[in-house]
Amino acid sequence: MPLIEFSDKGLCCPQGQFYIDPWKPVDKALITHGHSDHARWGSQSYLCHSFTKPILQLRLGDNPYQTVEWGETIFMNGVKISFHPAGHVIGSSQIRLEYNGEVWVVSGDYKVVNDGLSGQFEAVRCNTFITESTFGLPIYKWKSPEQINKDIQSWIQQNTADKKTSVITAYSLGKAQRVIQAIAEVTEKIYVHGAIYNVHEALLKAGWKLPTVHRVTYETTKEELAGSVVVAPPSADGSSWMKRFPNYVVGVCSGWMQVRGNARRRNVDAGFAMSDHADWPGLLQAVKATGAEKVFVTHGFQATFSRYLNELGIEAGEVKTEYGNDEEEGLTPSAAGIEDVEKLAEDE
């Protein structure tokens, strides 16, 4: 019997009698991180990393939460469990399972480059590795976090010189915190949407040291906002909420901005290919570092990535899940401006 079965409720460990990131209510849910496609309401109990708990409390309300630290070992019905850094967002973890000498790792979402907030991805040796492939095409190769920050800062400084308000869209958990840290180096006038403010406050109360931000409210005047930087979730773009800003320009932080022309197609002024997911080299690096003989690909460009792994001699297959449909980067290829997936894969 495999350590993980792919059920209609999520990733089930039958020996341990628990689920990992279930999309339907279960008795015991182990959670890799706080994004909405991995952490859902309704389960009887939750186990997560201690950094993830305040996010779950914010998004799911009061529940029986149990927390662990990275590398701490616990047992459930004889299954040895430990959480390890995934580097995706604050608190994001890979979950290692061991039973009768067999080791599986469920990675959730991850990136291998340290962004300074989310922790350094830890390669965990295993027999079977369950991976995402959100950006599982060879065209996706990110700049360093430092270079992306400089690009954003230069754009803001030019907008300020032009007396324009800079509005940057970034997912409320993950990129928003990275963006705010980059912005704080060039301005103190940082305003945020309520969704981002709520996450910001939850993290501050949990002890994270983050720059000072101001929530945009109905009382916030246009004079205050003039020449400022505003961080908002992608859902705010094009909404009536945006109309309050004077003389503003919009920049999008998303891995999809790697594809030339996406900023133009989405009718925004600038695009920054900042992602909390691994790029193509990062995905390959992570898979190879595990030493896994078998890989399951849960979401993203599953067919392309799993086929490539098989060509490398690593047994890989696709599995259907409900991951990858969070607010920000769970777009379909066509919605991301990618019409010919196979051609993009072959062009590299």
UniProtKB/TrEMBL annotation:
Transmembrane segments: none annotated. It comes from the Bacteria. InterPro entries: MBL, RibonucZ/Hydroxyglut_hydro, Xnuc_lig_assoc. Keywords: Ligase. Residues 323-348 are annotated as: Disordered. One of its GO terms (molecular function) is RNA endonuclease activity. This is DNA ligase-associated DEXH box helicase. It comes from Segetibacter aerophilus. The lineage of its organism: Bacteria, Pseudomonadati, Bacteroidota, Chitinophagia, Chitinophagales.
